[in-house]
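COURSE: Structural Biology Practicum
ASSIGNMENT: Worksheet 4, Part C
STUDENT ID: 0417
INSTRUCTIONS: Below are two proteins. For each, the amino acid sequence is given first, followed by its C-alpha cell string. Answer the questions at the end about the second protein only.

PROTEIN I
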Amino acid sequence: MPAATIRAAEAHLPAMADRLHRFSVEEYHSMIESGILADDRKVELLEGLVVEKMGQNPPHSSALRKLLRLLNRILPSEYVVSPQLPITLATSEPEPDIAIVLGPDERYDERHPVPGEVAVVIEIADESLIRARRDKAKLYAGSKIPEYCIVNLAAAVVEVYSKPTAGREPRYKTIQSYARQEPVPLTLAGKTVAKISFREILT
C-alpha cells in the first residue's frame, strides 16, 4: 500500500489519547481500597491516568533525606512536611517528593491534603526532569499550588515556579533558577520565611 494511502487512512483513526480510560479520583481510591492497586504500588494518578512512578537512584534518595532534615529544622510550626505522600487534586493524586502543607498532622487522618492546604511542592529530578518540568508543572499550576520547586540534580540548580495561572493552558508565570551557592527563598502564604542553602544537597 502506498505511503500516502497509509497516511490518509491513519488520519481517520482516533488518537491514542482518545482511547485511554481516565479514572476519577474516587475510582482511584476505590481501586486502592479494593486491593486492585496494592499498598506498595509505585503509581500515581495524573490527569485521570494511573502512571508508574519513576525509580530513585542514590543521588535522588540522598538529596531527599538531606532536604527533609533541612526543612524540618526551619519550617514554621503551623506547617508540616509531607514526603512522597499523596495530595488530592481535581483529577489527579500525585505523590510529590515533598509537599509543605498546613498542619497539624491530625488534619489528614481521614484524607489527603487538597490544593488550598498545600503551600509548596518540591520534586527532585534527574531522569524525571522532563516529566517534572512539563507534566507536573502544568498539573500544579492548574491546581493553583502557589509555588513549585524542582531540585534539578543534573544541572545542580533549583528551579522555582511561582504565580500559577489555570485555564486551558495552565502554567507558572515566573520561573527562577538558583545555582548551588545562591540561597533559595522559602515562601509560605506570600511571605518569605527563610532562605535555604542547597549547597550540601546539590553535591
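PROTEIN II
(use this one for the questions)
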Amino acid sequence: MAQMELQLSESKKTRRKPHPSLRIDMTPMVDLGFLLITFFIFTTTMSEKKSMRLYMPADGGTPPAIPESRVLTVLLSSNNKVYAYEGKFEDAIKQNTMLSTTYNVYDGIGKLIRDKQERLQMRKKEGRNDLIFLIKPTKQATYRNVVDALDEATINDVKKYMVVEPSIEENLHCLKLSQ
C-alpha cells in the first residue's frame, strides 16, 4: 500500500507547508509478476521431438516386383554431385540416359522428382504417388547428402522412398564420373 509521511520543518523562519513523502510498497506487484511468469511457464508446451517414420521390409521375404517405369534412382557421390537414372542401371548405361545434377533447390534432385511425378501422372494406370524413389549413397557421400535427399523426398511428397546400398558397378561408375 502507499503511505504518506508528513515531515515537519524545524526552522521557524520559513513557514512552508509540509511536503508529504510518498512511499509505494511494490510487494504485491512483484507477487503478481511471479504469478504471471509461473502461469505462462506451466501453460506453454515445449517443442516436441519429431522423427521420420522408417519402414523396413520383413527379413527373409522375397522383394515385390516393381515396374521399372515407376523407379527413379539417385546415386549420391562426392563433391555434392548426384547422378540419377530411371529404371535399371544397365539400361541407363547402355542408352546413356544417366543424368548429373546437384542438391540445388530449383534444378537439383527436387526438379528430377517433380518431372518424374508429372510423367507418371500423365499415364492412365499410374499416378503421381506411384513414384518409387531410391537413394543410393556411395562411400564418398556425406551424411548431409543423404539428409538432403531425404528432405527432397519429403518436400515433394514422395510416398515410397528407400535408402539402398549401391552395387559395385554403380560405385565404380560414380568414381569414374566424379574424376
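ANSWER KEY EXCERPT:
Q1: The longest strand covers residues 71-76.
Q2: The first helix runs from residue 27 to 43.
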